[in-house]
């Protein structure tokens, strides 16, 4: 058997056993403690000991969604950062890029995710959706169509939906409360 | 072939290892300086204990190769049972074995076929086993199709390395195939680049934009993803999808097929559905055979010092003709498993968490600003976000010795560190 031990370099000889903390756990700790969020975004941990599941609240201070409070759940699995976090909107909202089940169309949450991205990039990306909704990548087709065809009607629908009103056949959640 | 009753034919017959002994009985130009002519064969046959992880496409080949090159103490782990679709390439299994444990059937088959070889199966997960189990082996070979399992065994073997104990360093030989492509590599935990160091080389699994899936499906895969990503949670709520459950696959298949019909898309089948949701890339028997052979060749060379072993990454590309490339993959300083720094940190039992943080900030040689600290089981102090800072703030006044046992590890992250620093807390 090859004597592998003799190949350990001196500096390595001092190396200790690494902690059993998983790579995902360390990376999430790093991401969260280095978050650089504007005052319009806040994280909330239902269990502060569990860093892998939390809520993000976005309160846009400009744009057509100004005044609303939008909530997203984040669920991170042990393959993070090789898999993106799973993010869902926990409210029923009227938005071209969010469907009625809370699925979000944001490229870095799926096809364009890379391990060099982090939680900060995802959060900034989500906030951007409220400033610049994108009618070209629709998840709520009706909202997207309205947005590109009749912008005034769309803006009015946004206002109605945010109050918890009805747009077409759907009643949306009131996001002005809280 | 003569029928041998299991267990009765442990004696070797003359000339059994004639060809292999040509290599082991005398040194050659490529033998390692530590090569001991005549002593390597007994080590290989009597002492060397090797663990094979995975008894699937690669595992079957690996087990056969090891047994035939003279390894006699082989252990094999696999959590899967035999599926009828395995039979075309996983040649240790027969129709009568469908539904049985891959590890157990493979072990029995090898013991029947190659006299004197002892194969010990374990039908279960690698995660069921602890450090004591992995310590007993000289070498570990992986033939897995799961990134997660590979990362786990890689991290476990890196963590197993104890600076006081040379026996704790277990070479890991990792084989992997994807269609006509494959790789074999030798990982010497803490010495060479590890599996985690190279994770960014993985082919990313294709993901389609969610809005394409939702609105403009063009491919059968789009319909299947629609069923699994959007319809499953909508219809089943929090019930988790189990890609190993045929009923779940059937539901996805039916849902995807009706959507495909609606959009005039052809090609949604049961097996494509299973392939897409499990991210299956067709396995090719010949690729498995080549990669398994490369892995077993490395195991043999390392176990016998008979030739220079692979340094450290062999890549096979069989998609257009045959191309192979060998290179040294470099260790990453910021690898979360084998990289990062580790420091012995002697402190008194009286030091508080706040004082420990000040000591870290003042340490000239590590340049840390705003460190966040945790142990494998709890957070000690996190600088942000505000809620977590508040929740962990009471710990600042506590003594480190109340939170971390002697010899315990503290993981430190900070924006100024490439990844993390681990402190080995020693009380004086
Ligand atoms: Zn590494």
Walk me through this protein's architecture.
Chain B: The active site is at residue 211. Chain B: Belongs to the ubiquitin-activating E1 family. UBA3 subfamily. Chain B: One of its GO terms (cellular component) is nucleus. The complex is a heterodimer of chains A (178) and B (428). With 178 residues, chain A is of the alpha+beta class. Chain A has five helices and six strands. Chain A has helices at 10-13, 23-33, 119-131, 141-149, 151-162; strands spanning 41-44, 53-58, 70-75, 86-89, 166-167, 170-171. In chain A, strands 1-2-3-4 form a four-stranded antiparallel sheet, covered by helices on one side. In chain A, strands 5-6 form a two-stranded antiparallel sheet. Chain A is elongated and about 75 Å long. Mean pLDDT of chain A is 90; it is low at 11-19. Chain B has 428 residues and is an alpha/beta fold. Chain B has three domains: 18-203 and 283-327, Rossmann fold (3-Layer(aba) Sandwich); 210-278, Arc Repressor Mutant, subunit A, CATH 1.10.10.520; 343-427, Structural Genomics Hypothetical 15.5 Kd Protein In mrcA-pckA Intergenic Region, Chain A, CATH 3.10.290. In chain B, the strands form two sheets. Chain B has an eight-stranded mixed sheet with strand order 3-2-1-4-5-6-7-8, sandwiched between helices. A five-stranded mixed sheet of chain B has the order 9-13-12-10-11, with helices on one face. In chain B, helix 3 (57-69) links the parallel strand 1 and strand 2. In chain B, helix 9 (246-262) crosses helix 10. The longest helix of chain B is centred in the C-terminal third of the chain and has 20 residues, at 285-304. Chains A and B meet through helix 2 and strand 1 of A and helix 6, helix 7, helix 8, helix 11 and helix 13 of B. The structure holds zinc ion. Zinc ion is lined by residues 193-194, 196-197, 331-332, 335, 337-339 of chain B.
């Amino acid at each position: 058997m090859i004597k592998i031990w003799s190949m350990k370099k001196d500096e390595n000889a001092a190396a200790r056993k690494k902690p059993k903390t998983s790579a995902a756990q360390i990376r999430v700790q790093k991401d969260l403690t280095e978050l650089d969020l504007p005052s319009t975004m806040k994280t909330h941990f239902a269990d502060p000991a569990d860093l892998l599941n939390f809520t993000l609240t976005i309160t846009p201070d400009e744009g057509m969604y100004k005044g609303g409070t939008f909530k997203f759940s984040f669920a991170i699995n042990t393959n993070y950062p090789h898999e993106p976090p799973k993010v869902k909107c926990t409210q029923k909202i009227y938005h071209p890029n969010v469907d009625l089940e809370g699925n979000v169309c944001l490229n870095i949450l799926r096809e364009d995710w890379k391990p060099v991205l982090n939680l900060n990039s995802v959060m900034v990306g989500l906030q951007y959706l409220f400033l610049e909704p994108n009618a070209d990548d629709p998840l709520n087709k009706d909202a997207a169509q309205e947005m590109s065809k009749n912008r005034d009607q769309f803006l009015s629908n946004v206002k109605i939906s945010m109050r918890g009103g009805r747009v077409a056949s759907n009643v949306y959640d009131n996001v002005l409360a809280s | 072939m003569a029928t041998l009753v299991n267990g009765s034919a442990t004696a070797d017959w003359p000339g059994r290892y004639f060809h292999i002994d040509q290599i082991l009985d005398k040194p050659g130009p490529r033998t390692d300086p530590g090569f001991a002519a005549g002593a390597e064969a007994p080590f290989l046959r009597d002492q060397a204990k090797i663990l094979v992880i995975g008894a699937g496409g690669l595992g079957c080949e690996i087990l056969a190769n090891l047994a035939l090159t003279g390894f006699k103490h082989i252990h094999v782990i696999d959590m899967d049972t035999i599926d009828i679709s395995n039979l075309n390439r996983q040649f240790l299994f027969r129709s009568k074995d469908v539904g049985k444990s891959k590890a157990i059937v493979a072990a029995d088959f090898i013991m029947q076929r190659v006299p004197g070889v002892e194969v010990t199966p374990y039908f279960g997960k690698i995660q069921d086993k602890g450090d004591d189990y992995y310590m007993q082996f000289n070498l570990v070979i992986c033939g897995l199709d799961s990134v997660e399992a590979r990362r786990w065994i890689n991290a476990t073997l890196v963590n197993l390395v104890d600076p006081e104990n040379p026996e704790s360093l277990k070479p890991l030989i990792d084989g992997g195939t994807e269609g006509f492509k494959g790789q074999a590599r030798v990982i010497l935990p803490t010495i060479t680049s590890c599996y985690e160091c190279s994770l960014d080389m993985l082919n990313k699994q294709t993901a389609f934009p969610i809005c394409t899936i939702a609105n403009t499906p063009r491919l059968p895969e789009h319909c299947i993803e629609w069923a699994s990503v959007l319809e499953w949670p909508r219809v089943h709520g929090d019930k988790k999808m189990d890609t190993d459950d045929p009923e779940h696959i059937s539901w996805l298949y039916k849902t995807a097929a009706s959507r495909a019909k609606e959009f005039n898309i052809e090609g949604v089948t049961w097996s494509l559905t299973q392939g897409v949701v499990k991210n299956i890339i067709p396995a090719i028997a010949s690729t498995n055979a080549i990669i398994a052979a490369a892995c077993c060749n490395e195991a043999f060379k390392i176990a016998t010092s008979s030739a220079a072993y692979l340094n450290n990454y062999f890549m096979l590309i069989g998609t257009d003709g045959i191309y192979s490339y060998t290179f040294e993959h470099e260790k990453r300083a910021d690898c979360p498993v084998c990289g990062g720094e580790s420091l012995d940190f002697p402190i008194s039992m009286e030091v508080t968490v706040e004082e420990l943080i000040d000591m870290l900030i003042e340490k000239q040689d590590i340049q840390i600003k705003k460190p966040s600290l945790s142990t494998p089981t709890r957070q000690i102090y996190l600088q942000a976000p505000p809620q977590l800072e508040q929740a962990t703030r009471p710990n600042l006044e506590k003594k480190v010795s109340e939170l971390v046992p002697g010899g315990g590890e503290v993981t430190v992250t900070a924006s100024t560190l490439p990844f993390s620093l681990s402190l080995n807390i020693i009380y004086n």
